[in-house]
Write a structure and sequence with these properties.
32% of the residues lie in helices and 30% in strands. The chain has twelve helices and 13 strands. Helix 7 packs across helix 9 and helix 8 crosses helix 9. The longest helix has 21 residues.
C-alpha cells in the first residue's frame, strides 16, 4: 500500500468550508473510494481518499492499493485515521461507499480469514448528496452529481474521467506499472477529495434553510403597482453562490451573508376558524395579509379563505409586526418553504 499526503491551504477553502459552523465542537473528516466495479462480491477497493483537518488547513490522504493486494491493509489504515473523529462526511457514501467497504470486509474475512474492527460504528456519517438533494429545484440543478454541484459552485475540474472509465486504467497500472495510468487514477480521486472540501459550501445553504439567520429589518414596498412585505436578513454562514428562487409568488434572493424575502401582500378579508369546520365558528378580519404557503406552525393566528385550506395567512397587524420573535419565526418558515418548493 502506498500513502500519498497533500496539504490544501486554508486560503483555498475558507470561503467554502462551513464544517466547523455546521458541526460545532465536532471533529470532521471526509472520505471517498475508488473501486474496480459496483459489486463488492466481484470487485475490490483500490483507493480510499480521506480529508482531515490539520490546524486551519485540510490534508488529503490517499491510501493506494498499488499492488492489487493491499485492500485489507488499506481498510485498516483508513479506520485507524478516522478513529479520532466524530463526523464522516461523504457524497452518496450512505448508499455506496460505506456498505461497499462493509461487504468487502465480509468477503475478505470469509476468503482470507482476516478480521476487521468496523470503524464506521464509532463515527456519524453525513451524506452531502442527501443534504443538497431537497434544494435541487430551488438551485436549478439538472442532477445532483458531484461534478454538477461543483460546476454550480464555480469549481473547475482538471479531471475529465469518471470512476468507471478509470477501472481499466488502474488495472493497466497494476499489470504494467505504467506511471501515466497511476497518475490518472490518483488524480481523479484527489480531485474528488478536494471537490468535497468545496462542496462544504452546500452546508451554508442548509444552515440558511434551517434558520441560521437574523432579521435586520422589514418593510412594505410597492413594486410595479403591487404591495410586498420585504424581510432583510443576515445569514450566519456566507453562501458560496447567489440564490434566487421563488414559490407561488414569494421570492428569496441571497448573496454572500445577506438575503431578503419578498412576499405579496393580500388586501381584503379572510377568516379565522375556531375549529376544523365552519360550523365551529368564524371570525372575519379585514386588513393586510401575507401567505405562509404550507404547514405553518407558528405562534400566531392563521387566517384562511376556507376551513380546510392548506394555505394560511398572517395578518400584518401590531401583534405580528411588533413582535421580533414572530417575525423571525415567519422568516425561517418562508425560507424553508421556498427552498423546498419542487415546482409543482
Amino acid at each position: 500500500m502506498e500513502k500519498i499526503v497533500e496539504t490544501i491551504p486554508y486560503e483555498r477553502t475558507k470561503a467554502y468550508d462551513h464544517t466547523a459552523a455546521y458541526f460545532p465542537g465536532k471533529k470532521v473528516c471526509m472520505f471517498d473510494i475508488e473501486t474496480t466495479g459496483l459489486s463488492p462480491m466481484n470487485s475490490f477497493t483500490y483507493i480510499i481518499g480521506v480529508n482531515i483537518k490539520v490546524g486551519d488547513d485540510w490534508q488529503i490522504i490517499q491510501l493506494f492499493n498499488d499492488d492489487g493486494r493491499s485492500e485489507p491493509e488499506m481498510i485498516n489504515a483508513f479506520f485507524d485515521i478516522i478513529s479520532d473523529y466524530d463526523v464522516l462526511v461523504e457524497f452518496n457514501g450512505d448508499r455506496f461507499d460505506i456498505p461497499y467497504i462493509e461487504k468487502r470486509m465480509n468477503v475478505i474475512t470469509n476468503k482470507l480469514h482476516i478480521k476487521f474492527e468496523n470503524g464506521f460504528r464509532n463515527i456519524m456519517p453525513f451524506d452531502l448528496m442527501k443534504c443538497i438533494k431537497p434544494y435541487k429545484y430551488a438551485l436549478g440543478l439538472p442532477n445532483i452529481k458531484q461534478k454538477t454541484i461543483e460546476k454550480y459552485l464555480g469549481i473547475d475540474r482538471v479531471d475529465t474521467f469518471n470512476g468507471g472509465q478509470l477501472i481499466d486504467v488502474y488495472l493497466n497500472f497494476v499489470t504494467t506499472g505504467d506511471k501515466k495510468s497511476r497518475e490518472l487514477v490518483l488524480r481523479h480521486n484527489r480531485d474528488d477529495m478536494e471537490g468535497m472540501l468545496f462542496l462544504g459550501a452546500v452546508l451554508s445553504i442548509d444552515m440558511m434553510k434551517w434558520g441560521k439567520i437574523n432579521v435586520e429589518k422589514f418593510s412594505v414596498k410597492e413594486i410595479a403597482g403591487k404591495l410586498f412585505f420585504v424581510l432583510d436578513l443576515n445569514l450566519e454562514s456566507r453562501l458560496g453562490r447567489n440564490i434566487s428562487t421563488s414559490s407561488y409568488g414569494a421570492t428569496l434572493d441571497a448573496e454572500g451573508d445577506y438575503a431578503y424575502i419578498k412576499v405579496p401582500i393580500y388586501t381584503g378579508s379572510l377568516n379565522y376558524y375556531l375549529g376544523t369546520k365552519e360550523k365551529d365558528g368564524i371570525v372575519k378580519k379585514e386588513g393586510y395579509f401575507v401567505t405562509t404557503l404550507n404547514n405553518y406552525n407558528g405562534n400566531i393566528a392563521l387566517y384562511k379563505d376556507g376551513a380546510r385550506s392548506k394555505t394560511g395567512y398572517v395578518m400584518l397587524d401590531d401583534t405580528f409586526l411588533g413582535n421580533s420573535e414572530l417575525i423571525l419565526e415567519y422568516a425561517k418558515h418562508m425560507i424553508g418553504e421556498i427552498m423546498l418548493y419542487k415546482g409543482k
